[in-house]
Design goal:
Elements: E1 3-4, H1 48-54, E2 60-61, H2 72-82, H3 92-98, H4 103-114, H5 117-120, H6 125-137, H7 148-162, H8 165-168, H9 173-185, H10 195-200, H11 204-208, H12 214-230, H13 238-253, H14 260-273, H15 281-296, H16 304-327, H17 343-366, H18 370-404, H19 409-419
Antiparallel strand pairs: 1-2
Organism: Grallaria varia
Cofactor: a divalent metal cation
InterPro entries: HD/PDEase_dom, PDEase, PDEase_catalytic_dom, PDEase_catalytic_dom_sf, PDEase_CS
Length: 421
């Protein structure tokens, strides 16, 4: 069996800082099965949270994924879905149900096969599966949004982007593997709260990464730790694995939303100057960063039924953080106040200021392909739907205020401001 440490971050219970009493168990407390392992070196290299917990936690045998215990009919439906994995209307929620919660493992095994990566890199299927199970299990299923289903969704989107002719014609097997691995692991061990929350509660990860790209650094280091522990790439030359680890970091760190303008300005410059040379590894890597950023925030570009589910999930996660902040008398973060920040207003702002600028540039890069046009059409339709829902909320709020006769000038001004994000 494969013994592992099951440490989780997201637990702000260290006896340090201003909030030693807070124990944010937003995570999965899965009990390990099997016997206690031997005292061999067990910590995952570079993964701080595993290093931190290694001396306290018992070792155990990792249970194998239950994918192959499913009803044959479900497996048949899952296989049928995989035959259409490159379609933009792929329903990751349905696929996750059909695979009994193993969407990320199943999807990645399939995509590694489809892209010929197993043969090219001489990967061992059992080792690959074990590594992917480690990644999937290190996502926290209690998170409404930042969980393994989100990772699978981003990975499926990344697969679609890697097939865009403008990019696909230049990609090497190494580029493809990096893109898929970064997509799958880009949010691994996410605690369900954002960076400002970790900083103001003096979380050990904020101290470790000096308040800079705290979560993204942790996702990267955890991924490197799992790669090394699984020995998935141990048969490759050391310089190759070191390069893969560094490039994975560069890709995952690009998903930090605080760096959005940095990447947009650079992309705009390349497109305006028409100086992207995808024969150049550096330019290909930059476009892989852009592709991952697109995949990470592509929810508003999906079909309405899928997009709406993601919107509700991410806002639920925001609201949970706001509830925690309120409980511990911290200032409630932007977008996290359920009483003030409605789902429609959050989504309209997100689409207007973050999603649209990026996807319009992506469409410019790809050359207005069917996929890019499809995504922009969904984005515009979804924004119209959220505007309609926001208007209904305001109309309902106005009627109830009229009944009570208590609508104030400041409330009216707030409503008008929300109408114009």
């Amino acid at each position: 069996g494969d013994a592992r440490v099951r440490g989780q971050t997201g637990v702000v219970s260290e006896r340090r800082g201003s909030y030693p009493f807070i124990d944010f168990r937003l995570l999965n407390n899965t009990t390990l099965s099997g016997e206690i392992g031997t005292k061999k070196k067990v910590k995952r290299l570079l993964s701080f949270q595993r290093y931190f917990h290694a001396s306290r936690l018992l070792r155990g045998i990792v249970p194998q994924a239950s994918l192959y215990l499913l009803d044959e009919d479900y497996l048949g439906q899952a296989r049928h879905m995989l035959s259409k994995v490159g379609m933009w209307d792929f329903d990751i929620f349905l696929f996750d149900r059909l695979t009994n919660g193993n969407s990320l493992v199943t999807l990645l095994c399939h995509l590694f096969n489809v892209h010929g990566l197993i043969h090219h890199f001489q990967l061992d299927m059992v080792t690959l599966h074990r590594f992917l199970v480690m990644v999937q299990e290190d996502y926290h299923s209690q998170n409404p949004y930042h969980n393994a289903v989100h990772a699978a969704d981003v990975t499926q989107a990344m697969h679609c982007y890697l097939k865009e002719p403008k990019l696909a014609n230049f990609l090497t097997p190494s580029d493809i593997m990096l893109g898929l691995l970064a997509a799958a692991a880009h949010d691994v061990d996410h605690p369900g709260v954002n960076q400002p929350f970790l900083i103001k509660t003096k979380h050990h990860l904020a101290s470790l990464y000096q308040n800079v790209s705290v979560l993204e650094n942790h996702h990267w280091r955890s991924t490197v730790g799992m790669l090394r522990e699984s020995r998935l790439l141990a048969h490759l030359p050391k310089e190759v694995t070191e390069d893969i680890e560094q490039q994975l970091g560069s890709l995952i760190l690009a998903t930090d939303i605080n760096r959005q303008n940095e990447f947009l300005i650079r992309l705009k410059s390349h497109l305006d100057n028409q100086d992207l040379r995808l024969e150049d590894a550096q330019d290909r890597h930059f476009m892989l960063q852009i592709a991952l950023k697109c995949a990470d925030i592509c929810n508003p570009c999906r079909l309405w039924d899928l997009s709406k589910q993601w919107s509700e999930r991410v806002c639920e996660e925001f609201y949970r953080q706001g509830d925690l902040e309120q409980k511990f008398e911290l200032e409630i973060s932007p977008l996290c106040n359920q009483q003030k920040d409605t789902i429609p207003s959050i989504q309209i702002g997100f689409m207007t200021y973050i999603v649209e600028p990026l996807f319009e540039r992506w469409a410019q890069f790809t050359g207005d392909t069917p996929l890019s046009e499809n995504m922009l059409n969904h984005l515009r339709r979804n924004k119209t739907k959220w505007r309609s829902l926001l208007h209904k909320q305001h109309s309902s709020s106005s009627r109830s205020s009229d009944h009570s006769g208590q609508v104030t000038g400041s409330q009216e001004q707030t409503l008008n401001e929300e109408e114009t994000p």
